[in-house]
Amino acid sequence: MLTLYSFGPGANSLKPLLALYEKRMEFTHRFLDPTKFEHHSDWFKKINPRGQVPALDHDGKIVTESTVICEYLEDAFPNEPLKLRPSDPFLVAQMRIWTKWVDEYFCWCVSTIGWERAIGPMARSIPDDEFEEKMKHIPIPEQVAKWRSARKGFPKEVLEEEMRKVRVSVARLEARLNESPWLAGPDYTLADICNFAIANGMEKGFADVVNQKDTPHLVDWINRINERPGAKEMFSKVKRENLARRPQQSAPA
Amino acid sequence: MLTLYSFGPGANSLKPLLALYEKRMEFTHRFLDPTKFEHHSDWFKKINPRGQVPALDHDGKIVTESTVICEYLEDAFPNEPLKLRPSDPFLVAQMRIWTKWVDEYFCWCVSTIGWERAIGPMARSIPDDEFEEKMKHIPIPEQVAKWRSARKGFPKEVLEEEMRKVRVSVARLEARLNESPWLAGPDYTLADICNFAIANGMEKGFADVVNQKDTPHLVDWINRINERPGAKEMFSKVKRENLARRPQQSAPA
User: Fold this and answer.
1) What is the mean pLDDT of residues A163-177?
2) CB nearest to B65's CB, from A65, A76, A100
3) How far apart are alpha carbons B216 and B213 in whole angstroms?
4) What is the edge-to-edge ordering of all strands in the sheet holding A28-31?
5) Do residues B71 and A93 make contact, with C-beta atoms less than 8 angstroms apart?
C-alpha cells in the first residue's frame, strides 16, 4: 500500500504527486497544511524526523526526498506501463543531471522569492510568541533560519542575487528546450516532472522572465505538461494549501 | 573505451575514480592540474562546457557530475561483478539520500574550509593581472565568486557557519555508522564512496571534530575504506595535485 504525505501540487510535493498520477498508480494522499505547520508536528516527525514533505509510506517503509521518491517509484514498480526514466543509461545520466540541477540550483532561487512573497506575509501574521513556539518544533536549523528571514524580509542583496539565478535558470531551460522536446532527450521523464514542479506558474509569478516572447520553448513545455492527462487529473483532484488565509490554530475544525 | 578526466583522488574527483578501481574496470585516466587551471582551458571546455571535473568519456559520449557518473557506471555496465548499488529498491533510496546529502550539504561546508586553507594561499600567490585573466575563462559565475572569496579570505561569519555545518555533518555520519556498518545498510555502496570522498583526511584536517575519541565509528569506517584493495590501488596509482606548489605558467615542462 502506498501513502504519500505532501503539501498541495506545487514545488517538491508536486514531483511524486505528478509521477504517481502519470503512472496511474493507486495511492492514498495525506495532505499536510503548511499554514498549520503540520509537517513539524510530532505525529509527522515520527514518519520523517526531518519534518519535511513529501514522504512516501510503502507498506510501512518510509522513503523521503522528493527526487529520491520519484526514482524509487521507477525501481520498486518496474512493471508499471509508463516509465518515467529512460532505458538508455546515457539518457538516464542526462535525466539525473537535470533532476540534480533543479535540487541544487533552480529550486532554491525560486523558493527564496516565493518565501519572500508568500511565506513572509503569512509568517508576519503570526504573533511573536506563537511564532517562537512554532520555531521550536522545526528540526532543521537552516529551515528555522529561512523562516526568520522570510518573516523579517530577505535582504535586498539576497533577493537580487536569487533573481539573477532565476534568470540564469530560465535561460538554461529555454536553451535546452529549444534543442530538445524534453529535458533529457526524446522522452518525457523525471527530468521534466522535477523541473516542472518549480517552473509551473512562473508565467504568472515571474512574467517578466518567463513569457511567450522571451521564452517561447519554456512556455510551450509548461503548457504541454499541463495538458497531459496525468497533470490535469492531479490538479483537479489534489487539495491545495491557501497561504493567504492562515487558519486559526485553536478554532474548531 | 572509458576515459576519466579528473583531479587527483580527493573530493568529487575521488568518487568515480574509486568506483572504477573498486569495480576493477579498465579505463584511461587523464589528470588535470587545478593549479594550472586546466579544467578551464578551451580544450577541456569542449569536453565539459561548465569547466568542471570529473567528466567521463564513454565511447565519445560525455557524462558529467561525479555522482551521476557513479550511477552511470552501474547502469551502463550491469555485468561487472562488484555492484556498488543495492538490488533492493528501498536500500537504493537510502543510498541516494546519502549521495544527495553529500552533494547538497556535507561537501559544501568542508569545501569552503578547504578553499580557505589551500586555495586561498595559492590564489594569493598569483599576480593580480594573471588572476583576472584566469577568472575570464571560468564559465560558472558562482565559481568565479568562490575564487575571489578564497583569494580575499572568506568572511569570519561564513567560516563559522561552515564549521557549524561540518560538525552537524560529522555528527550525522557518526550516528549512522554507530547503527549500520555502511551508510545505506548492510553493503558497501556509492553512499560510502561519495561520502568518503569528502570525509577521508578529516582525521587530519579536522582533528578536533573527527577523532578516535569523539567519532570512533566514523574513523573506523574511513579506515575500513582505506584498507580496501580498490582504495589502496587508487591511492598508489593516481597522480595527485600539489596545491602548495604552483607551477610557473610559462616555465618549460
Assistant:
1) 97
2) A100
3) 6
4) A28-31, A2-6, A55-58, A61-64
5) yes
